Amino acid sequence: MGFKCGIVGLPNVGKSTLFNALTNSNKAQAENFPFCTIDPNMGIVAVPDHRLDNLTLISKSKKKINTTISFVDIAGLVKGASKGEGLGNKFLSHIREVDAIVHMIRCFDSDDIQNVNLNVDPVRDLEIIETEMKLSDLESIDKRLDKKNRKKIEDKQIKILEMANDCINRDNNFEILKENFTTTELNQTGLLSIKPKLYVCNVDEKSIGKGNKYTNSFIKIYGNNNTIIISADIENQINLLDGNEKKNYMKMIGLEQTGLNILIKKGYELLKLETFFTSGPEETRAWTITKNCTAPKAAGLIHSDFEKGFIRSETVSYEDFISNNGWLNSKNSGKMRLEGKDYIVKDGDILNFRFNT
Fold first, then answer.
1. Torsion angle of alpha carbons 304, 307, 309, 311, nearest 10°?
2. Could you tell me if 44 and 72 are in contact, meaning their C-beta atoms sit under 8 angstroms apart?
3. pLDDT at 82 over 50
4. What one-character DSSP code corresponds to residue 214?
5. Smallest Cα–Cα separation from 215: which of 205, 200, 226?
C-alpha cells in the first residue's frame, strides 16, 4: 500500500506549483488566477529509500521497485465553499478520497501573484479552509443521521458521526475520536475534519532556512510537529536539475533535503507507516505497512493467498542483511529468524514468506 495526499488551500497559494515539483511533472496548470485547476490532478511518486538501493545491489536483483505515494492537486477553496462558492462542493468531494490532507499556506509577499485576500495571514487562511470542511461535514452528518438513512449505518459509525458532530459544534479537537476508534473506522466516515493533516508553509527563497514573520506566527499556534517550510518555486527549480547540479544548487541555498523527502518523512510519521522489503535475484521491493502490522497481514499485501496460507516468515533485519551480505550469510550466522503469525513486522525487515497453497 502507498498513501494518497490531497494538496488543498486557497487559490494562488502555490498548490499546483508544489504538485508539479513533487511529481516532477507539469501536469498541473500553475497560473496567476483563481480556479486555474478545476478537476484534480494526480501524480504517483516513487518513495526514495537508500535501503532499497543497497538491498538491490547485495541481492543483484534484476528489478528494483519502490513503494509509492500519490499526490492530488485539488482546486483552490474559498470562503463559502461548503455552500457551493467557487465550485466548492465539487472540490470538497475530492478531498474525501485522500488518506491525508496537505494544507498549502501562503507565507510570502508578492505584487506579481494575486492574493484572494487583502493581506497575507496564514492563520486566517487555514481557518477559512478548516471552517469550510467542518461546515461540509455537519451537512453530511445531518443527512446520514436522518431517520431514513441511519438505519443503513452500522452502530459504530453512528457513534463516530454523533461524536464528530459534538466536537464540531463545541469547537473541540478530535482527539477523543482518535482515542476511541481506529484510523480505518474513522476513514470509513469520509469526514474531512478528522483526516490527518500536514501544514506546508510556502515561502520565498530567502525564507527557506529560517522562515519569516508569517511562518513564525503560524508555528506559534500550530507548532512544528506537522509543519513544513517549503518554497514551491525553488522545489520546481531543483527538479529541473540533474545529479551534481542538483546537489550543488541545494548546497548553495542551504537546503539539506528536498521538499519531497521532508513531506514523505512527515507523512509516514503522521499516518504511522513503516516499510518492509522483499529481496532476491528477480527483484527487490519496498512495501508500505501500518505500524504494529502482523506478518500475515504484511504477506497479504503481496498476495491474499500468502495471508490465508501463512506458515511463517524468514526474517532478517536490514542491518544484519547488509552486514552479512545477503540471505545466505544471514542464515549461516544465525541472523535469520523464523517468525510466526503473531510477529509484529519492524521497519526495515527483509521478509521471505512461507505459505500453504
1. 150
2. no
3. no
4. H
5. 200
Joined grid coordinates for residue 51? 535501503
| Rounded Cα distance, 238 and 250, in Å | 8
Cβ-based neighbours of 171, under 8 Å, separated by 6 or more: none
Write down the pTM of the prediction: 0.84
| Per-residue pLDDT band at 27 (split at 50, 70, 90) | very low
Strands ordered across the beta sheet of 310-316: 63-65, 283-290, 273-279, 350-355, 310-316, 337-339
- Pairing mode, strands 63-65 and 283-290: parallel
Give the C-alpha separation, 84 to 77, whole Å: 10
C-alpha cell at 351: 521478509
How confident is the model over 256-283, as pLDDT tens digits?
888 888 988 999 998 899 999 999 999 9
pLDDT digits (tens, 9 = 90+) for 200-235: 999 998 998 889 999 999 999 999 999 999 999 899
Nearest by Cα to 354 from 312, 298, 316: 312
